[in-house]
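To whoever is on call:

I kicked off a structure prediction for a single chain this morning and the downstream step that reads the tokens threw a length-mismatch warning. I double-checked the sequence; it's 279 residues and nothing unusual in it as far as I can see. Pasting both halves so you can look.
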Amino acid sequence: MSSESERLHKLLAQHGLGSRREVEKWMLAGRVMLNGKPAQPGDRYRDGDRVVLDGQDVTSRLKTTAGKASVLAYHKPQGQPVQPASAGEESSAEESVMERLPAVRGARWLVINTMQPGDSGLLMVTSDGRLADGLRRRAEQIPSAYVARVLVPEPEFDPETLPRMVQFNDQPVAFESIEPAGGEGTNRWFRVEAAHSHRRAAVRALFETHGLKVSRVIQVKFADIELPRELPRGKHKALTDQQVARLYEYAEMEQPVAAPPPRRAPRRAADRQRKKRAR
């Protein structure tokens, strides 16, 4: 479908101005204007329309072909807020994740795997709002892994004694594996593999429902992406083209292709002769 008849909220997301869900909320809040009137989630953008977001004309951005998406892996420290404080909120002493990331031209970073300030580990962000939405919708089909620091009753504690399923929010949540991952004495680390994402609290419940105290849960994997061991906390790393392509496969979406740069018109022979004479 061409941009002349594209749904406006989808087009804004495609150009990295927000996720589709975010844009729909902005529309309902009156923050998006289409031809001088408040836009609605079902409105379509057509050639010649004027679009304003939060008082800023963004029409020119919608007329360009959406480029290749960028995806970053960020090592989020515990306690760091993801978004900067909004007006009226008490600002954190620590810089937010978004304030630490590099600027992305013509778009903004959107979170793929939602994290709270108290969460830590692998945080994924992208410049493609459609990709962020697609991966969030398919969270139950995307594998993930976490490491948990647990206080065990004895150093020889065997994680095989734990069941691979726990009741969480009145629903059964299954885990693929629980493996030792280091530690000393009764303070032990365990790597927990799951066939789904957004279950950090369920990882904690897996141990605590059996009387074990959990002090930390860190996400170390999302889809095929592992948190790089060499990536310091508070730093980011760009994903490779192959890794980004796999994320589109997980989202069951077609990956956008950047438009080729315009070809320069060949210089005429007369122009070349004039330049030679001028030298």
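Update from on-call: the warning came from a stale cache, not from the record. Cleared it. Sanity check on the structure: The chain is about 20% helix and 25% strand.
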